[in-house]
Design brief:
Elements: H1 2-15, E1 34-39, E2 47-50, E3 56-59, E4 63-66, H2 72-85, E5 94-100, E6 104-110, E7 116-120, E8 124-125, H3 126-132, E9 143-147, E10 154-158, H4 163-167, E11 172-173, E12 178-181, E13 186-191, E14 197-200, H5 210-216, E15 229-233, E16 237-241, H6 243-247, E17 261-264, H7 269-272, H8 276-282, E18 288-290
């Protein structure tokens, strides 16, 4: 996970010197936004105005134009038609750009170091927004969700440990959006192992096998009964596994699922006989570790 934090920092630094590809024009103009209006080959008609509370832009030559709720392209078309209807120009070519969005908080929630609301005036790359919240925690899932403000649209961004993949298809966060970083799936290795506890499946693919999990937990101790390891799934389905045979390659390794519990029994008979419910209950107080 330290490598992920380092990569996150490197990519965030890269974003300060490398421009991000322009996002699709999906953010609508709203009250308080500062817009720039340009008319091709007519510099004297260039204007920069702030949208009023009622959603209109007070422009010279045409008067107030309703632009709130429109994309910049739609606002430019409305202004173009007014210039023609008011006989100001016959064939104007108008462009509208949002110079500054009215300050709205972006909410950064979940597995970040400082969750909260952060002021945003212009769209920013998701990595910059996450850096405002101190970056992600060791237990963060790699799939970050961005919920658009005032829309049901949700975007997913993969927080890869590959810098190039991080910069590919970069998601932009708009003022008023919500950024959610969920907790990675957890599996539990309990019983007679070096470091019992919960382990976050925080790799790119959220993939972990039983042997990998046992290794993360410091391996089974010499006092353990490796022929009677138990895998408890969904809190009730249980299978017995010969860990000793699996480590020798005599039986195949097993892919784990979220909330799986692996119990490596001690040599004492009372621990071998522990019920599945007793084992599951013991995970409630287990320490949680990040997968390195």
């Amino acid at each position: 996970m330290r490598r992920v934090v380092l990569v996150f920092a490197v990519v965030t630094l890269m974003l300060t010197v490398r421009p991000v590809a322009a996002q699709k024009e999906s953010l609508l103009i709203g009250p308080g936004d500062l817009i720039q209006v340009d008319v091709l080959d007519t510099p004297e008609m260039e204007q920069q105005v702030r949208v009023t509370d009622d959603g209109s832009a007070p422009l010279a030559y045409v008067g107030s134009v309703q632009v709130s709720g429109k994309t910049p392209a739609a606002a430019a078309e409305a202004i173009r038609l007014l210039l023609i209807s008011k006989n100001v120009m016959k064939h104007p070519q108008v462009a509208v750009r949002v110079q500054e969005y009215s300050t709205q908080d972006v909410s950064v929630l979940g597995q970040v170091r400082t969750p909260g609301a952060y002021p945003l005036t212009t769209p920013q790359p998701v990595l910059r927004v996450l850096s405002l919240a101190g970056g992600v925690t060791d237990l963060a899932d790699r799939e970050v969700t961005v919920k658009r403000h005032g829309s049901p649209e949700q975007l997913t961004y993969m927080l890869s440990n590959d810098p190039q993949k991080m910069l590919t298809d970069m998601v932009m966060v708009n003022p008023g959006d919500i950024v959610m970083v969920p907790k990675a799936p957890i599996i539990y290795i309990m019983g007679d192992v070096g470091r019992p506890g919960g382990y976050a499946m925080s790799s790119n693919e959220s993939h972990l096998t039983l042997l990998q999990a046992i290794a993360r937990a410091g391996s089974a101790n010499k006092t353990s009964v490796q022929s009677k390891v138990r895998l408890i799934r969904n809190g009730e389905k249980e299978m017995q596994i010969r860990l000793d045979a699996m480590e020798k390659g005599k039986i195949p390794d097993i892919d784990l699922q979220a909330n799986d519990i692996i119990y490596v029994p001690f040599s004492w008979m009372k621990n071998i006989a522990m019920s599945g419910s007793q084992i599951a209950a013991s995970t409630a107080s287990a320490a949680i570790y990040a997968v390195p």
